[in-house]
Every structure is written in C-alpha cells, then in structure tokens.
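Renewal narrative, Specific Aim 1. Our central claim is that a sequence can be written position by position from structural information alone. The example that follows is taken directly from our test logs and has not been curated for this report. It begins with the structure tokens describing the chain, in the order in which they were read.
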C-alpha cells in the first residue's frame, strides 16, 4: 500500500471506530493534513490531541503529536507529549493513530493527579520538610503524608476523587500521637474545609456577586492542616499561663477532659490547658463574653457556654463568700 492509501484507510478507521474504542473521544477533524480528537474523562480531565502524518513514509515514520488542554497545566501536557512521541516510535511500521489515542486515554485513567499536579508540587516544595515524608499512589489517587513536629507526628491520607476538583478531597488519619480530641478534629475540620470549597454557602449571593464556583481543595486543606494545626499546636503557648499547652513528651498527653493539664482547642484557634481556661472563665470582666487573651476573639466552647450575666452573679456570690471567710479568719486570729 502506498503511504496515502494507508492514511486514507486510517482516517476511515478513525471515523468508524474512534468513539466506540476510545471512551470519551470525539473526532473534531479527520483530514490527511490533520487529525484532531478531543478526549474527555471529566470536565477537568479533558484534552485535545492534534496528530499530523509525517511528510513522507508513514507509517514507517512516527506520527507527529501535540497535546493541548485548558485544564491540565501546559508543563504536564508537554511532558506527556514526550512520552507519547516515544510510544509512537515504538509503533512505527504499522498504522498507529488509534493506538496512540488509546494510550492517551489510558494515561488520563492512570493519572488522577493530572488535575492537581500544581497543588501537589506546591505541597512538596512549600509544606513538606526533610523530616517529613510524602508518598503518592498515582493509580489510586492517594497521597500519604507523614509529618513530624518535635516528638509529635501525624500520618494522613488524602484521596483525590475522580471528579476532582468538582468533588472535594477526603482526609483520613492513619496514626498520630496527638491528643485524641485533636485527631478527631483534624479530620472533621479538613472535611468541612474541603466541603466548603465545592458546595455553595446556604446564603444566596448578593446581586452583582459572581455565582459560586467549586474550587480545588487539596492544597487549601493540606496547608491548613500543616501550618495552622500540626506544626503549630505542639509549640503553641497556653494564652493564660504562657507555658506550652502540649506536654513536651507526647507520652504525657492527658486524654481525661476534666484534668487540669488536658489541652482544649478553642474556636479562635488557640490551645489552652483545661485548668487555665476554666479558672480564666470565672474571673471578670464578663461584659461581652470572655475574650481570648492572645487574639481578643470571644471564647466559644461547649464546656464554658455561660452567659455573661450568670458569670457575673457567680463571681459576686464567690466574692461575698470569700469576704465572709476572711472576716471569720480575722475574728479568730
Ligand atoms: Zn495554661
Ligand atoms: Zn485566641
């Protein structure tokens, strides 16, 4: 067969077989001068493959490949084009348009991180230190993080779903020596943050405000967990006594919520000794609610959910009782 006869046959094969053989594919142009096929896995995993037959001697010379995408970073598309060129070279000698398109579709299936490669690069560069470990399981879309701060550690698993970024990442805690409450809260907070990235708030947008768009959640959630929680808490002072709220040795962590050295996580993001916050909540001023000495935000916590008026009354009662005791002590001495 002459080269042009081979090309004609390939183009007709492409028209009749492409959509049925390559999931999510759509032939845009099918012409001896150029082939353009769009391959869609999800709204964000979508690319256009441009193929050009070599000037002479197809299929003994490889087809020329270019990959473009609006959602996958250019850097990644270029790298992937290089891999495809190598694959095309291996297939020289027989027609290889459909094989190359199948290879590209498989790449989309096997690499769920294509849509978050920039976020992943940021995490590796900015959030992970030499002490930490990060592992990625491409096919499963799972990122495992092992973070260490002083003697504390957290092992986390982040799963990037197929429909990412329209669906949020999920976070699981594999192991940690943080206090129990913190372990639960890390996952709860991360899940909530990720959800808010993709679900519109209940409040309708004001007129003129742009409609809600789902946003990528991976970098956002990992950055919060690493910077605002895991690296911060073990060395953060208790706002009342100014000593570290966490014990230096994780084995001294107290999981009894009534113990004075039990660590409480407040809504403002500060951590207190249970005994310190308990005492602090009982002394005035109470007007407008008790405020965090370190950030000035009002202290909200289920355990100290007392109205300012009631605290005032209790304080007055406590003071009166103390005066009575003092008078008796004075009288007796
Ligand atoms: Zn304290
Ligand atoms: Zn605070």
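The sequence written for that structure reads:
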């Amino acid at each position: 067969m002459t080269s042009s006869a081979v090309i004609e046959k390939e183009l007709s094969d492409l028209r009749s077989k492409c959509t049925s053989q390559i999931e999510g594919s759509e032939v845009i142009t099918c012409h001896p001068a150029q082939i353009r096929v769009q391959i869609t896995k999800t709204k964000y995993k979508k690319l256009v493959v441009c193929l050009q037959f070599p000037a002479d001697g197809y299929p003994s010379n490889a087809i020329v490949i270019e990959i473009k995408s609006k959602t996958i970073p250019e850097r990644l598309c270029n790298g992937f084009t290089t891999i495809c060129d190598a694959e095309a070279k291996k297939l020289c000698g027989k027609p290889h348009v459909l094989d190359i398109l199948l290879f590209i579709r498989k790449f989309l299936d096997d690499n769920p991180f294509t849509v978050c490669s920039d976020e992943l690069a940021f995490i590796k560069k900015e959030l992970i230190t030499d002490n930490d470990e990060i592992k990625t399981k491409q096919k499963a879309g799972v990122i495992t993080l092992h973070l260490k701060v002083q003697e504390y550690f957290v092992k986390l698993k982040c799963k990037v779903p197929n429909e990412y970024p329209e669906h949020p990442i999920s976070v699981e805690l594999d192991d940690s020596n943080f206090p129990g409450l913190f372990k639960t809260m890390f996952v709860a907070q991360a899940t909530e943050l990720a959800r808010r990235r993709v679900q519109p708030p209940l409040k309708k947008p004001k007129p003129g405000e742009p409609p809600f768009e789902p946003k990528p959640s991976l970098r956002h959630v990992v950055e919060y967990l690493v910077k605002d929680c895991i690296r911060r808490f073990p060395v953060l002072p208790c706002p009342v006594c100014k000593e570290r709220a966490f014990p230096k040795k994780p084995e001294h962590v107290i999981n009894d919520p009534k113990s004075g050295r039990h660590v409480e996580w407040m809504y403002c993001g500060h951590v207190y000794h249970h005994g310190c916050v308990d005492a602090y909540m009982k002394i005035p001023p109470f007007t407008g609610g008790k405020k965090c000495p370190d950030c000035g935000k009002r202290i909200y916590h289920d355990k100290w959910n007392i109205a300012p008026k009631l605290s005032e009354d209790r304080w007055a009662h406590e003071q009166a009782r103390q005066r009575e005791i003092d008078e008796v002590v004075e009288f007796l001495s």
